[in-house]
Amino acid sequence: MSSTPGRRRIFAVAVIVAGVAVLAASASTLFARPAVPTASAPSLSALDRAVDAAQAKLRRVPNDPDAWARLGIAYVEQARVRADPNYYPKAQGALEKSLALRPERNAEALIGLGALANARHDFTAARQWGEKARAVAPDTAEVYGVLADAYTQLGDAEAATDAVQRMLDLKPGVASFTRAAYDLELRGQVDEARAALERARADGCGAFCDYQLGELAFDTGDLDGAARHYEDGLRADPRDVSLLRGRAKVAAARGQTDDALAGYRDVVSRAPLPEHLHDYALLLTAAGRPEEAAAQFTVLDAQRALAEAAGATDDLDGSVIAADRGDVTTALRLAEAEWGRRHQVLVADAMAWALHLNGRDAEALTFADRAGALGWRNAGLAFHRGMILHSLGRQAEAATALEQALSINPHFSVADAATARQTLETIRAGK
Predict the structure, then answer these.
(1) Nearest C-alpha neighbor of 6 from the set 154, 301, 226, 304
(2) 300 and 277 in contact (C-beta within 8 Å)?
(3) What is the residue extent of each domain of the chain?
(4) 298-326 burial, b if ≥16 CB within 10 A, otherwise e?
(5) Which of 75, 122, 222, 355 is a plausible cystine mate for 217, CB 3.0–4.6 Å?
(6) Taking Cα atoms as reference points, which of 344, 348, 380 lies closest to residue 366?
(7) Do residues 242 and 37 lie in contact, with contact meaning Cβ atoms separated by under 8 Å?
(8) pLDDT of the chain along its 431 residues, tens only?
(9) CATH fold label, 206-308
(10) DSSP string, 31-72
């Protein structure tokens, strides 16, 4: 929907060869951007039951460190599922209580604190907690989930893949297969990523993997395949907002704007997550409804303020949103702040785009090169590179990059796909 490359969260998939999961040497979005479930996404009712069970245990045994750790981890998941960062301080309090009660060899609390740090986008802290947990419980798969997520977001691709491989070795299930897929996708191994997601789905991933398969299909230009996966998931869970968002995204790509707008309106009413609000605002803008788009951006600003108040920082998303709103100075300032914390693919791309919008194309190209270094076949990255090259007067290279963007996914953005086509026509006409 936006000029941002598909920033799915760290949900990935491994290569399946003769029934064995293998990762090629050394991997998220949301995207990437965002809290990451430790397995297939639990339902809200399941989370509520986990919270109730932990609280009941603590009423009986107030100083049970395991119950405090389980409560903290459940709060982290509730923050994600409810799109409510107010659960983060609750999670922190419960996990710190667990650690105070059992300061030594408390792997569950350390894992929980790592997951919380990842959810808050404090990936350096998440890596530190994960490494502490590994020292205590080196054969626990969940340790490597925390580490894989942190390493990926910090841009340490080799360490991320090693962590994913270790997780696969210890527990080859949904959580490890889904993390492996994003790693593979980042390296351009789309077929292997798809195979691993299919394996995760066969292992009981259900609607969660239907969504991921739909995203993978959409991002590679297969609208029919994306629609099929989204609808498969919705048959199993008609209320799943991610799948409803996927359906709306397909409608927008097919030019069914009224259906897409109705779909996004429903999605943001159910789950006003930043990515949902952002997509909806961009679609409203493209549909010529700027006042309604501005209202969504206002809600998005409020969401970001709530997240920051709860200890979550996401200058990457902030930079992308500012760029889409035309605030190029803020876009660059936030991108630079995020780059100061981590050198991940999407942060490199945000730096490239913000520098381009500020007229600093020579610098922008160095970041575009870094964004594409792993081999990710992503239309948004290719579009940004093409526009930067176009501004530098390197028209043959620009045309190649823009052709690649449209070849990967001709529907990658309601606004930018049209810009890519128009710029390509201009280049071909020699203007």
Answers:
(1) 226
(2) yes
(3) 1-201, 206-308
(4) eebeebbeebeebbbbbbbbbbbbbbbbe
(5) 222
(6) 348
(7) no
(8) 545 554 333 233 322 222 223 222 222 222 332 333 434 445 567 888 889 999 999 999 999 999 999 999 999 999 888 878 899 999 999 999 999 999 999 999 999 999 999 999 999 999 999 999 999 999 999 999 999 999 999 999 999 999 999 999 999 999 999 999 999 999 999 999 999 999 999 988 889 899 999 999 999 999 999 999 999 999 999 999 999 999 999 999 999 999 999 999 999 999 888 899 999 999 999 999 999 999 999 999 988 888 888 888 889 999 999 999 999 999 999 999 999 999 999 999 999 999 999 999 999 999 999 999 999 999 999 999 999 999 999 999 999 999 999 999 999 999 899 999 999 999 999 86
(9) 1.25.40
(10) TBSS---SSSPPPHHHHHHHHHHHHHHHHH-TT-HHHHHHHH
Same fold, 1-201 and 206-308: yes
- Packed helices 257-270 and 274-286: angle between N→C axes, nearest 10 degrees: 150
Q: How many CA atoms lie within 13 A of 75 on its CB side?
A: 25
Dist CA 63 CA 321 (whole Å): 44
Could you tell me the pTM of the whole model? 0.87
The angle at the Cα of 4, spanning 228 to 123, to the nearest 5 degrees, equals 100
For the record, the structure tokens of 397 come out as: 């290279």
Amino acid type, 221: G
As a whole number of angstroms, the distance between CA 397 and CA 32 comes to: 28
Closest CA to 379 of 6, 74, 85: 6
